[in-house]
Amino acid sequence: MDKRLQILREAMEIELNGIQLYGTAAVHVEDKQAKEVFQFLSDEEKKHYQYLKNAFDSISKGEEIEFQNLLPPRIPFDSIFSQDFKRNLKGKAYEYSAIATGIILEKNSIDFYRREKEDAESPAEKELYEELEKWEEKHYEMLNKEYNDLKVRFWDENRFYPF
Fold this sequence. Notes:
single chain, mainly alpha, elongated
């Protein structure tokens, strides 16, 4: 199999993991705002998947990658969780774990796209991976900010002290 196709297949798998994680979180969280944010993230990962699938299909047909410069979307949320949710974090382990898992997923995606961008054989492939890296960085920043904002309060309210 063409190396580029193998890379794109791995990238599509990464995006499918994101679709699954965020889609499941959107169904299971109780906070209305968090449901919207996780659904937004799932929809974003679907766009990434389709973007990669289009590139995969083009290369499979012997065509060049059709690259469309898509700027990372403006994330329309200042916070994942509502203020009501943040006032009582006791027993909210699922929600907190979804953010922590999302951070790992996004970081791994960023690292993957950065690595593949450096090894890309054509300018179009390099652009593709750079574009996806930027999108994932936006997701990572949002999740990481929320995680850090809630971490100490979550630990206190749930009597969880890992250190």
